[in-house]
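ARCHIVE RECORD
Type: protein–small molecule complex
Small molecule: pyridoxal-5'-phosphate
Source of inputs: curated submission
Record status: active
Notes field left blank by submitter.
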Amino acid sequence: MTTPRESSIEISKEEFRKIGYQLVDSISDFIDTIDQRPVTSGETPSQIQRVLGDSHLPEQGTSALELFPKAVDLLLNHSLFNSHPKFFGYITSSPTPVGILADLLASAVNPNVGANILSPMATAIEKQTIKWLAEFIGVSPTYGGLLVSGGNMANFTAFLAARTAKAPKSIKEDGLLQAPGEMVFYCSKATHTWIEKAAVLFGHGTKSIRWIATDADNRINNDVLERTIIEDLKNGKKPFMIIGNAGDVSTGVVDNLAGIGTLCKTYDLWFHIDGAYGVPAAVIPELRAMFMGIQEADSIALDPHKWLYCPMEVGCTLVKNPQHLIDTYSSHPVYYNFGNAEDEPSQNYYEYGLQNSRGFRALKVWMALQHIGRNGYVKLIGEDIELAKLLFEGAKRHEELEGLTHHLSIATLRYVPSGTKLGEPEAEKYLNLLNEKLLNELQNGGEAFLSNAVVNGKYCLRGCIVNFRTSKSDIEEILQLIVRMGRKIHGELKVEKLN
Ligand SMILES: *Cc1c(COP(=O)(O)O)cnc(C)c1O
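STRUCTURE (tokenized, with ligand):
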């Protein structure tokens, strides 16, 4: 027997178990009592800084038994909890408990899912997860792709594949300067900010983005889109892709995807769908029509850490012909011995995207998909949509609330004091001020958490329900809370005006 190396990093098996059991106890209590906690502690950054302290880098180590209770206290008593039933902010879901445990298991094995030889089972699990995600949203299971950190990365990964596919073959060597005309791309005004980052990151500049007008319902106007493409072609530009939204980030609208698909065929453009938020709703049979055309997409971004309720971080890029990813990202340095075995080709994920070393994100998605199953997701996602509708209709029914939009699981609404003359410029200006104050107080108050949207110039509160813990009574309580706070702030603003 060899003598183990004396090391301050190891902890004994007994200690590991003790810490682990304590930690699991704390987490299971936390999950069990989440609805009795405030959504957020509402502390300011300087208050948080005081709680954390301002010490220097530790010179000496501290026992793990001491460290964990401290970390648990800091996090469970001074955080914002998106696992709270009244959290509806942005698009951030409650994490599935199975996913929480899966992440622990994944980091215990710690496979490097960049290369098959370093992660034989994890690579196979990621491959299966990708296939299941394609089946989930209703595209051919022959789509390939990979998991990334989130929606932004999923869209970036597809963007570069699109450009490589549509640019002259030499673009990898020559760069953009040799391209025959400025490469331009199309998306609606409602598109998420990732597109600006992509334009900068990949060297096109934001002037290459063609922001296409939307109709009154926030859907891309396909006539304006086509006219813009024709105009660009006339001016010697090189259009290369159209991005359709499957659930825009602000109000949840799905573009006319079939129409975009047709335009892409006509003008030989890459068809990308940003489904980071909304595409999982395609699992619901009654909603299939809304997503018509997705089978035509060359690439699709989706975000399991949103509507599949997986803990962060995990996004996914799906590509109809995965060879495009390899054409874009593959290289074979001499220091890699990841070559295919004689008889069987192996899939090395470093060749599919931007990352090299890659963590085992797939496990939590793979486990959640099995734990919940297609039918479970149909029910959960359907209920989230129903709850958003309840929020919208509750606002429409209430005399002092106005429901503005409802698409998928996003509802927008605002507080309107009785007697307000809607549409009058002065009144609208006041309502914007009032609702902005209302939202800020609501976000810091800890009773519930919504975010904001601006709908046709109207500042409103926005509830996005990707939360399996929310129930009807939460919606009713939140409507009452908004009215109560609205009245209070309206009263305060009146007094301010008088003084
Ligand atoms: C959330 C979202 C993104 C960005 O995704 P992250 O996971 O936050 O990086 C992009 N597009 C849409 C439509 C989104 O909803």
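CURATOR ANNOTATION: Residues 13-40+43-77 form one domain.
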